[in-house]
Design a protein that fits this description.
By secondary structure, the protein is an alpha/beta fold. The chain has a single domain, classed as Rossmann fold. The chain contains 6 helices and 5 strands; from the N terminus they run βαβββααβααα. A 5-stranded parallel beta sheet has the order 2-3-1-4-5. The protein is globular, with a radius of gyration of 16 Å.
Length: 183
Amino acid sequence: MAVVTIVTGLPRSGTSLMMQILEKSSLEILSDGIRQKDNNNPEGYYELEAVKGIVKDNSFLKSANGKVLKVVAPLPMFLDKSLSYRVIFMRRDIQEILRSQEIMLNKDQQAEREKFTAIYTTHLQKTYQFFELNNIPFLDVFYKELINNPDSELKKIIEFLGLHSDWKELAEVVNPELYRNKA
């Protein structure tokens, strides 16, 4: 049975980087290129427009079998439960995520950080609960570790996904210069 590989995490957590890594591994990526690369994501976003409407229509997932799809948290809760999944869950310090979003939006949201921290914490909890309740295997990958220690993180990813890739080749995608908003 074919499995859909989901890359998830909060926005600005390194999901696009993970998509680049998995593309380098020769896994087939499901994206449409509608969202163009920009200064905030100079290597691209690797998104599929249909994911935005997953709450009302998740039928596009049937075409994702055997492919990799980016679905940011908390949207994985709307996956079609009749399909099989494995998940790479990108984790990043929430304060780094919030700073990165502020820069991306060119908007100071410091006064609302506490509110966004609570919202994002809830998104993470609900997404983990969904995976655990539905027995969906997942691997946490910490963005900071992936940047600072790619060999260790990439070896875990290769093992989890059963890839036949060399971690050194995959590490070529990791660009520490793009880790710009640090805690």
